[in-house]
Amino acid sequence: MPEMNAESLSIPLTQGMLLAGVLFAFGLIGLLVRRNLIFMLMSVEIMLNAAGLAFIVAGAHWGQADGQVMFLFILTLAAAEVSVGLALVLQLYRHFQTLDADAMSRLWG
Amino acid sequence: MTGAFYLASLVAAVSTGLVITSLNAVHALLYLIVSFLAVAVVFFILGAPFIAMLEIIIYAGAIMVLFVFVVMMLNLGRRAIEQEAGWLTPKIWIGPSILSATLLGELLYLFGSGILSQAGGITVQAPKQVSVVLLGPYLVGVELASMLLLPGLVGAYHVGRQLKSEDA
Amino acid sequence: MLNLLWLVPTLPLLGFLALAVAGGWFSRKTIALIGVGSVGLSLAVAGLVGSAFIGLSGTADRSYDQVLWTWLQVSGFGPAIGFHLDPLSLVMMLVITLVGFLIHLYSVEYMIEDEGYRRFFAYMNLFVVAMLTLVLADNLLLLYLGWEGVGLCSYLLIGFWYRDPANGAAAQKAFIVTRLGDVALAIGLFLLFTHLGTFNIQDLMTRATEQWPVGSSLAAIAAFLLLGGAVGKSAQLPLQTWLPDAMAGPTPVSALIHAATMVTAGMYLIARTHVLYSLAPIAQTAVAMIGAGTLLLAACSALVQRDIKRVLAYSTISQIGYMFLALGVGAWGAALFHFTTHAFFKALLFLAAGAVIQSLHEEHDIYRMGGLRQALPVTFWTFLIGAASLAGFPLVTAGFYSKDWILWEAWASPLGSPWLWGVGVIGAFLTALYSFRLVFNVFFGEAKAEVGSRPGLMVEGPLIVLAAGSLIAGFLEVPRVLGDVSLFSKFVSPVLPSFEATASITTESALQIITMLAALLGIAVAYVLFLRRPALVTAMTETAWGSTLSRFWIEGWGFDRLYDTWFVRPFLWVAQANKDDLIDRVYEGLAWLIRQFFAVLHRTQTGQVRWYAAVLAAGSVVIVALVVLS
């Protein structure tokens, strides 16, 4: 573990949050634009990752390990979500023979 | 180190942008892995080496492998890329972009408005510290996470299995 | 001995509970044993309590209070479950238990064929409980409980043979009409409590005298409201229409509830609160007017009915009219005395009529009866005694003494007048006429129907006891000229004050002779009209005038039709018009409004996941914007 002192790591918090925000926005755009379910799931992964980044940044800023703990939880969530989500994608593809999310609009009220 | 941070951030942002714009799913996955790796670097710089490792192992490794499997199983091929090209007209980007830009702008405004302005030094949070916190005050959270993972496993198995009746 | 008082209502209550809960496992014999035994024990205890009470030293204010527990306690409002025994409630209690016991005994044989045997005795026991609660209650709230309890039992027993819709309709009519009076009574109770701050009857009366001067409007309003309840329960004008229809119930029910006890609850209520009426002379005058009016109206209707039980029902209304007349002129003791004798002879008449009806296979029409004198000797003689007592046959019957007392007071009391007396005498004539119309039509002449079964010992026993009561009960109070016995009036005087007679003995004797003559004349006319010259009656009813009048009287002076046109039909019309419930429209409008909202909102439900995600994102944009802008 390299020794790091405070001066060498004076990255302003705003920059870290900016990166998290940009990644989140990209994920959101992707989610809204893409109609392919695989891409939508990827976008969700991007958004989750961005949220985890925000936690890490905040944890680093306050010098608390809690941020990393939260990231671990998000990681767990992402793993569970993606496994179920991909299983659903498989099943939907078998059923509809397409990955077009807009084709699956039976939830219409 | 500051330079490395900005470089990694740039790589992460650009590769993420490429993920959401690429037509080919495999290309998108590769860009996504790059993005995750860049974010892992950022984590390392922010003093979270343990998380950086997990990011690489689980996100870039395990989760992405799942995606790759699924893409390969579905065997999307050229037809899917053409379909994607047909869907991704320039017009479709306008709405989501405005929405996301607004959200981003608001967030930036909040970050810049002073609530996070106290620039403090970054200290390394070693895996040991994380573990102490994780298995101390957050023990219930760990239990909940395990309870989430088990149904995730069972659910994935159950939903993903090939139904005999649908084969016919 | 006096502290056994609580057992008097409790024993029938236990009987009711046993029959209601576990009666299904009992044989008919056990059911009868519990049903009759509980009332019989109650009578025995009542007798013990009564003798102990009479044995109390004769102080001016003789009464005994037994508070069992506090019903409920809300700041300043704490009605007790408590009993108040004084001469008035003692007389009521003894009559109720005695007559009730005899009627229960009679029912053992009378109802033996009925499939609802257990139900019948359970209801009858419950009725006795409620009636005893009514008369023994030391506060108006408990009295009201008993009041509603007897109303409930009356409803249940009128509709006892519920398979016939007509019986159900009669039960409902009785319940709804008496309910009108009950509402007035309830409002009266609220008024008394609001102004006098207690429900305890004795305290109420004391405070009323202290706080309200004679003629105060509050006292009058309270008295009128209580009168409303009494009028409904006792089937007086203008709420008398339910009683003739109430004859749909089994005959023992008619005897117990709709003749001897429950219908006199109104009389009891007014006697119990007589202080209030003394404070409100106008209300008391109204009581007298109602009594006088009712007794004439009902007597006329009784004259033309064909159904033997309806005749007796109208005669009950008429006799309670006498009691109200007595109350109205301040002759509280006379009213109670007439209640006592009436309970005997009217229960007797009903039970004897029941025996006749059963012997003739449920024949109710007196014109299809006749000549039963030889076939049913015990029934005949007891019925004759009952009818004579009802008619006020001079000197030997109880009815004569009680009615004579009332008429004398109607004349001589400060509140009385020759007019009221005159109405009473005409009523006495009519009473004799219709009661002997029954006797002559049913027991004399030629036999028109075959006698089936003959009443057994269990039926005839109570008849004989009641017949004896109808004769000797009168000797408790004999007017000055005829022997001057005043056991009854002396006994009740602590609670029901009497006044000094203002008229001379000569007047009294003259009036008595007129009363006697009226009764005898009635009997004589009945003899001529219904036995010797039935053609005369036919001729009379066949004239245009006569047939109209008789039809008018048969229908009970058209009150039913009047109420039907004035109240029932408008109400039905309103109900019909409001079938779709106007208030409902408001809710329908609300539902319509929500549907419109839904129509707008449901367009957002596209089923597209991306659209939902976009809305979610837009929502978070708005929320963050709120944070930013705040």
Provide key terms for this protein.
heterotrimer; A: 109 residues; mainly alpha; 3 helices; 72% helix; disordered N terminus; C: 630 residues; two-stranded antiparallel sheet; two-stranded antiparallel ribbon; 27 helices; 4 strands; 73% helix
Kindly describe this structure.
The complex is a heterotrimer of chains A (109), B (168) and C (630). With 109 residues, chain A is an all-alpha fold. Chain A is built from three helices and no strands. In chain A, helix 1 packs antiparallel against helix 2 and helix 2 packs antiparallel against helix 3. Chain A starts with 12 loop residues before the first helix and ends in a 13-residue tail after the last helix. With 168 residues, chain B is mostly helical. In chain B, helix 1 runs antiparallel to helix 2 and helix 2 packs antiparallel against helix 3. Chain C is mostly helical. In chain C, 73% of the residues lie in helices and 3% in strands. A two-stranded antiparallel sheet of chain C has the order 1-2. In chain C, strand 3 and strand 4 form a beta hairpin. In chain C, helix 10 runs antiparallel to helix 15, helix 13 crosses helix 24 and helix 14 packs parallel to helix 18. The longest helix of chain C is centred in the first third of the chain and has 32 residues. Chain C is globular, with a radius of gyration of 29 Å.
